[in-house]
Design brief:
globular, single chain, about 350 residues, five-stranded mixed beta sheet, 2 domains, Rossmann fold, 14 strands, alpha/beta, about 20% strand, nine-stranded mixed beta sheet
């Protein structure tokens, strides 16, 4: 126990009471959850950030895209705009948020990407503007209970599962662990390669003490570095590592395993890069010379800001792509569950 934990207990108790009361209002019907005619899948977590929500949404897009017309909806955390917006080539991360912009850059030609902090108003707008949509993926919407999702996917990391966490501010939980009972499936993310059966049994047993739903285990697969601007002739063995994500551990470990890291610059999650940051990075590149900047896909989105071009155009800068790994049986389970919902709602006849 940390020495200051006793000071936080009263605040944690108050926060727990407020979130319990709010959830209870929905469960008793005093607050209304609306179910839409269009199928919706919720992807979320109980804790603050770092569970892999965006990679999971991207995984679902790739899994379902050959069969369904998909839209994604998030609130667009960190954007400077308000209200509903449909992503387009004229909008950047400051207008729609980092993660939605990342998804749009990857899949914008094949899906619709929307943002709106009031999802209950945003969903009808998606239906109006994109009537051909078969399914809406709601990113980071597990606590947004005004919309009743048809299939709720709860993520929790292998490194810090929700059943070992505590409520804010003692821990990182946004609500009591009993919130997991709203999930239709729980996916333990960022699992180590070759996870033992005993580890799986332990996690399943602990989760089933709270809720008896299927538990899946997913890992992370990193690709080769991708240049974020014009194609580069090569990547480099030496890298300056730049990242601003909620949980840096796995990313930093992977980069150090594959490259010679000469400098490391880390920022807080959702860091807004400033000119001073780019000057600092530029000076390090000049100092070390034969090296590249290596960053996350999420950070690469922000470093593409036109205001920084005079700095980033001077040196090779790459992003390390990330994908979710699931065994085929679990992929099929998710595919079958989600497409069944679409069929049952009669949004399409055959898949």
């Amino acid at each position: 126990m940390r020495w200051y934990d006793p000071l936080l207990y009263p605040f944690a108790a108050i926060y727990d009471g407020i979130t319990y009361y709010r959830n209870r209002m929905f469960e008793t019907g005093n607050k209304k959850s609306i179910s839409f005619s269009i199928p919706t899948v919720v992807v979320g977590n109980l804790n603050l950030g770092g569970s892999g929500k965006t990679p999971m949404v991207e995984f679902l897009i790739e899994l379902l895209l050959p069969h369904l017309k998909i839209a994604t909806l998030s609130r667009g955390y960190g954007r400077k705009t308000k209200g509903f917006l449909m992503a387009s080539k004229d909008l950047g991360p400051s207008e729609i948020g980092d993660e939605p912009f990342q998804i749009y850059e990857k899949f914008g030609k094949s899906i619709s990407v929307a943002v709106g902090e009031k999802r209950i108003l945003a969903i009808p707008e998606i239906i109006k503007q994109k009537p051909q949509t078969d399914l809406i993926l709601l990113d980071d919407a597990f606590q947004h209970r005004y919309v009743k999702g048809d299939f709720n996917i709860l993520l929790t990391t292998f490194q810090k599962p929700f059943f070992k966490d505590r409520i804010l501010p003692l821990g990182t939980l946004r609500e009591n662990i009993n919130g997991a009972k709203r999930a239709d499936v729980i996916i333990v993310t960022k699992c180590l390669d070759h996870l033992s059966e005993s580890d799986k049994v332990f996690y399943i047993t602990e989760i089933n003490k709270i809720t008896n739903v299927p538990v899946l285990f997913s890992g992370i697969e990193y690709g080769d570095p991708v240049p974020i601007f014009d194609p580069q002739p090569k990547s480099f063995e030496k890298v300056i590592l730049v990242s601003g994500i909620a949980n840096q551990t796995l990313f930093v470990s992977e980069v150090k395993r594959r490259f010679q890291v000469v400098e490391t610059i880390t920022f807080e999650d959702h860091h807004r890069y400033k000119e001073a940051d780019l000057i600092r990075i530029s000076n390090l590149v000049k100092k070390h010379q034969d090296c590249m900047i290596l960053t996350t896909e999420k950070d690469a989105v922000k470093l593409k800001n036109k205001a920084f071009y005079k700095y980033v155009a001077e040196f090779p800068i790459f992003a390390l792509p990330i994908k979710i790994k699931l065994i085929e049986k679990d992929k099929k389970f998710l595919f079958d569950q989600i497409t069944k919902i679409v069929k049952d709602k009669a949004y399409i006849r055959e898949i």
